[in-house]
Amino acid sequence: MGHVTSLFVRKMVAGSGPGIDGQAYLRSVGIDPDSAWDPKQMITDEAYYAMLEAIAQEIDVTDLPLRVGDSMRCDEYGALGLAWKAAPTLRGSYRRVERFARIWTSIVAYEIQPVDDGILWIEHRTGERQLGMRLSVEADMASAVSISRQVSPVPFRPTEVHFQHSAPKTLKHHEAYFECPVHFDAEHDALLISDEALDQPNKLGDEGITQFLLPHLEGELSKLRYEPSLVDLTKEAIAKALSEGPPKMEAVARGMGFSGRSFHRRLADHGLTFQMLAEETRRELAEGLLRDEQYSLADIAFLTGFSEQSSFTRAFKRWVGHTPASYRKAQAGL
Length: 334
Known about the structure:
This protein has helices at about 5-15, 20-30, 45-55, 65-70, 80-85, 90-100, 130-150, 170-180, 195-200, 205-225, 230-240, 250-255, 260-270, 275-290, 295-305, 310-320, 325-330, and strands at about 5, 40-45, 110-115, 120-125, 160, 180-185, 190-195. With about 325 residues, it is of the alpha+beta class. The longest helix is centred in the middle third of the chain and has 21 residues, at about 130-150. The radius of gyration is 21 Å and the shape is globular.
């Protein structure tokens, strides 16, 4: 079971307007509607998703996550929001969230994946893709765009937006808000953002404030319940299994003394999935092997769990934005 800050819960209820009994919905998830907004108060993801699905029974929620995302302000994220504003560039802002998002939620992990001329800002979540989760994902993506627009000195829009779930009946609200093509039934939940947009200097960028805030955020992160040994052991088990092909979560869990369900839950508590760790392990192993000239590309494909070199090439280019051959050549020139 994961948790999410009550800030998002309150925003969703407020954004739903007078068509619902907002106070009753807040009480249903354990929030006193008369109390001060406290972002550090956490709500379980199950309660949050169930609340959103109940609201959807009363009102049309097609554009609700977009309106909620648009209402988010950097200052509402506390120190992390200030770090977002103070980063020298928008690229730095996204790196701050990739690193410190667990301060706000344990149900999401973010990944910056380099691609040609930009990045994919990927949101990873586990669990069944029901309506509550879909609304939450869309609100998160809309929030990222909103706070990007608040710090960018020029009009900000992503190049593309991707959602794993199916499209609503109309796309007009999504296309109008994001101002770019919006793709559903996609491989990832992600924003495609250009290098040009990422490298704009933030309007309030301040390296001094950034350096002051980072130790504070690291301290907040260290207070969270976290088991690096579980991650390390999982990646080690994955690496050992790769020569037999893509590892199965159940087999790795069994080898580490967990049931599949327990193992999945423990990773999810930290905003991680087995697939995320498997991809990261394969990428890190491939990068290391490519720096060693004694291994051929075919050898590396086999050692990282691919049955064909062409499949390895496609995956590696998706991971780092370059083919294995061009990556090896670039590393040799360093």
